[in-house]
Amino acid sequence: MNAAAVTVRPVQTKADRKAFVDLAWQVYQDDPAWVPPLKDEVHGLITPGRNPWFEHARAQLWLAERDGQPVGRISAQVDDLVLTHMGAGTGQWGMFEALDADAAAALIGTAEQWLGDQGMARALGPFSLSIWDEPGLEIEGFAEAPTVMMAHHRPEYRRWIEAAGHAKARDLLTYEVDIAHWSDLMIDRLVKAGERSARIRIRKVDKSRFTQEAEIILNLLNDAWSGNWGFVPLTESEIAYAGKKLKPIIYEDLVRVAEYDGEPVAFMITLPDINELIRDLDGRLVPFGWAKLLWRLRKPRVRRARVPLMGVASKLHGTRIASQLAFMLIEHTRRACVAKFGIETGEFGWILEDNKGMLSIAELPSARVNHRYLVYEKALS
């Protein structure tokens, strides 16, 4: 290990932000499972004025350097909505990358100090930047590339974070299932019974009414997830922002809304694994990345799809109709994935380890946990 001292300094300039984003390419240059993110998306995430998360939160970014060269990065953030919904004094950290243990220790210590100076009593992370972005540290599934909107990390990070005194708060799980060859007689009967019911309608979203559809789905999301650990509601600005970002990768066949007696009460968003389409772009959309990506998005042919968001109205939680609607959404979307997109594998998640309702749905026949993420907490003295 290089014996030169590590220095940590705040990100202040445009050049600093570029170094902050670009560091990931150095960290993962020899990792075949890493998928380079689109750099413009990462810059958008961390830039006030582009990401409406900053309307209710503040973040500080740092770079760790040795001999003037970046060797790590981290963020620390205070979110007013987290303070309201997760408890006063709950600060968060994330965007963590490091090339060695010394850089990791210096960065984590710096983030903890800043959170303490902000009056926080507890550090929770990693979140990049919120639970709606890339939550948790990957601790299982390193050999497999992550699907769209999921994180990938170095195995050493777990040891380095725990050495700094951080302990488990929650595990987040993703499940993989062979959707091309999946069937279950009991679920099939449940789905067919629902299809015969005049009270139930499973419909595709209408992209010509995208703004209204996005509002229906994301308001349902806020309601359905409101009882989950870590839940923070999406604001109106964030709903509009998420809708704008997701629109290019939304396909009507893969996003469904369930109506009961004419009222939208459940939804499921399925995304083709866009990581398969951007992997060779190396994070760049210019000069030719835009054209390549737009062409590929016209009719994506990918091996995997991910269900990042699914929910049933809270008033139906624990009822038979809730399970029936969930399995109907899954089956209708599964058929389209296989028949229209050639998708073979579905991934559900992330799902909290103690969310028994969602786990019972995700644990379909032949399903297996393919990735596990860990959210840490630490009391700040």
From TrEMBL:
Domain of life according to the entry: Bacteria
Family annotation (Gene3D superfamilies): 3.40.630.30
SUPFAM superfamilies: Acyl-CoA N-acyltransferases (Nat)
InterPro entries xref list: Acyl_CoA_acyltransferase, BcerS-like
Name of the protein described by the UniProt record: N-acetyltransferase domain-containing protein
Source organism: uncultured Sphingomonas sp
Lineage: Bacteria, Pseudomonadati, Pseudomonadota, Alphaproteobacteria, Sphingomonadales
